[in-house]
From TrEMBL:
Family listed: Belongs to the methyltransferase superfamily. METL family.
Name of protein: tRNA N(3)-methylcytidine methyltransferase
Record Gene3D superfamilies: Vaccinia Virus protein VP39 (3.40.50.150)
Main EC class the enzyme belongs to: transferase
Entry EC no(s): 2.1.1.-
InterPro entries found in the cross-reference section: METTL2/6/8-like, SAM-dependent_MTases_sf
Biological process per Gene Ontology, one example term: methylation
């Protein structure tokens, strides 16, 4: 599938963004204070900002209940990076019989993890919620190496500076069992949210600063494929999803573009072992 073909008006909007970029000083400050900005986000919004993501079970059949997980296990193990307050993992847990799913759920924000654990659906027998900056911490210290069946990266990588994305993927690859999957969904190139950014918000190519200090990257198919293959994954699927956000009351009909994919850790690993360090990258949305 091709990238969206821009109209002349949309090309003008993108050119205007380049007239005033985020300064190097501010860009570095945003990176250093990423945890602070996400913690403030959850302080302001608590559990109200995102709806529960029941759609993930429709989009990814791999999340459906199976009798046996990896290596003959009687349960499935999942790692969600950037879990926020649990909008994906808590509904997923409800769909599984007791004892058939164990979830590692991590986020950069300690406040998000606290709110996850305060949810009445949270059970320490089924979920381990923990704070983790996946840009600098080894996720395997918590999960163990090669122990996870599935990793979900749902609106997570877009919050990370692209310079660190390959390291993040190496980090989660080490947690996956051979043959394990990464399920990905995030913002696609030329999504309306990207086109709406004003001058003064662009940090780098396809990377932007929001008003609250968090960041958003917009992915192309080719760039995502390059990231995963260089991190040692096989591409199962990688495609754009076109949706519309409709608000009848406000007479809004906004086209949206997302990127969705599935990527597999090979049964026999053959990627660049020089990156076999779990000093990697970051979370959430």
């Amino acid at each position: 599938m091709q990238d969206k073909q821009l109209t002349d008006d949309e090309k003008v909007l993108l050119r205007k963004q380049d007239t005033r970029l985020v300064s190097q000083f501010l860009s570095e400050k945003l990176e250093k204070e990423a945890k602070k900005h996400w913690d403030l986000f959850y302080k302001r919004n608590e559990t109200r900002f995102y709806k529960d993501r029941h759609w993930t079970m429709r989009e990814f059949e791999e999340l459906a209940f199976l009798e046996v997980g990896a290596n003959g296990k009687k349960y499935k193990t999942l790692l969600e990076v950037g879990c926020g307050v649990g909008n994906l993992v808590l509904p997923l847990l409800e769909s599984y019989p007791q004892g058939k799913l164990f979830i590692y759920a991590c986020d950069l924000s300690p406040r998000a993890i606290a709110q996850l654990k305060a949810d009445p659906r949270y059970s320490s027998q089924c979920i381990m919620g923990f704070e983790c900056d996946i840009t600098s911490e080894n996720i395997c210290d918590t999960t163990g190496m090669g122990s996870v069946d599935i990793v979900t990266l749902v609106f997570t990588l877009s919050a990370i500076h692209p310079d660190k994305l390959r390291g993040v993927l190496v980090n989660v690859r080490e947690a996956l069992r051979p043959g394990g999957l990464v399920l990905f969904r995030d913002y696609g190139l030329y999504d309306m949210a990207q086109l709406r950014f004003k001058p003064g918000h662009k940090i780098a190519h396809n990377l932007y600063m929001r008003q609250d200090g968090t960041r958003s990257y917009f992915f192309s198919i080719s760039y995502l494929a390059e990231l995963f293959t260089k991190a040692g994954f096989e591409i199962i699927s990688n495609y754009y999803i076109h949706r519309k956000t409709v608000n009848i009351k406000e007479e809004l009909d906004v086209p949206r573009i997302f990127l969705q994919g599935k990527f597999r850790k090979p049964e026999e690993q053959c990627c660049d072992t020089s990156l076999k360090v779990c000093v990697c990258t970051y979370v959430c949305i």
